[in-house]
TrEMBL record:
Disulfide bonds: 108-205
Protein localization: Cytoplasm
Domain tRNA-specific 2-thiouridylase MnmA-like C-terminal: 289-359
SUPFAM superfamilies: Adenine nucleotide alpha hydrolases-like
Keyword field contains Iron: no
Protein known as: tRNA-specific 2-thiouridylase MnmA
Leader peptide range in chain numbering: none
Species for this entry: Aeromicrobium marinum DSM 15272
GO molecular function: ATP binding; methyltransferase activity; tRNA binding; tRNA-uridine 2-sulfurtransferase activity
Gene label: trmU
Keywords, alphabetical: ATP-binding, Cytoplasm, Disulfide bond, Methyltransferase, Nucleotide-binding, RNA-binding, Transferase, tRNA processing, tRNA-binding
Amino acid sequence: MPDEAGAMRVVAAMSGGVDSAVAAARAVDAGHDVTGVHLALSRNPRSYRSGARGCCSIEDAGDARRAADALGIAFYVWDMSEEFADHVVDDFVAEYAAGRTPNPCLRCNESIKFAAVLDRALALGFDAVVTGHYADLRTAPDGTIEMHRAVDAAKDQSYVLGVLTQDQLAHSMFPLGGSVKSDVRIEAERRGLQVATKPDSHDICFIPDGDNAAWLTEKLGPRPGEIVDEQGAVVGSHDGAYAFTIGQRRGLRLGVPADDGRPRFVLDIEPVSGTVTVGARESLTVDRLECIKPLWCGSPPVSLHATVQLRAHGAEHRARVRVAEGAVDVELTDPAEGIAPGQACVIYDGTRVVGSATIARTG
């Protein structure tokens, strides 16, 4: 635990990108005893994204090591490939096969970075894990740790951290929560870190070329089915319903145009029959969410007026949230479009993250 001066033994999770490098540097500046760790998420790193994208490639591991050397801290590679495959990759495939739309980054934070990594760090005698996520941690008057949105709204990552529990937050450090990305890059350059100008990562790390549909087809094989309109008339066909997501407009390859000539969107995916239903954009609007598997950053609420975020970089929606018997019912004051089962609903009270749940049904 922290010594009398507040210094701690911490693991800095270093992805090979600029954010995690600067976060580690700030932890060193704060007087902590920092050990850099890079996560090996694949036994064959070339099977994941290659190039300087800041997450899981061989180049990223080298960038992380060079950053640790520049900071003068110890550096290790932890093999998390088995855990990553079980909890993130396999979950991603299973969710799409079931007609749902998962968020693998959120699942990685829940199961890998703040579960497997944190558990290992604590077992080894470390006090906390430092990451380059953009979120702000504050200590409430009652001593609990609150997670708030980052200062840089464009980089805020509180949505993908909404799965963290109070115990995990108490052993986490996010040094970049009060910074904007441009300043972080300037700081990295000033410190002589080679990753200062490295591009951000946007794609799913375990899909090398970013082609989700082709990758899922390779994993699941062809599963032909029909595309129908809201009246049930067949308007096209496909090789696998897992290649679609609710709200999708492009790549539908419909053989029959809409009567009014307007674009059509994916409204529903039926995984058993493989039927994909398309229709007008207005039919995507929902104002009710039924959510399951809630995870709370602090004490579970019973009922509250809040805002919810339904995509990683989506808008906030005003909502009434009710919690009962492990289920979360959300009534949206501000309706949303294109919301798919499997997505995360992250609940906010102002800037504070209350918790998250998985969307099971919309209405």
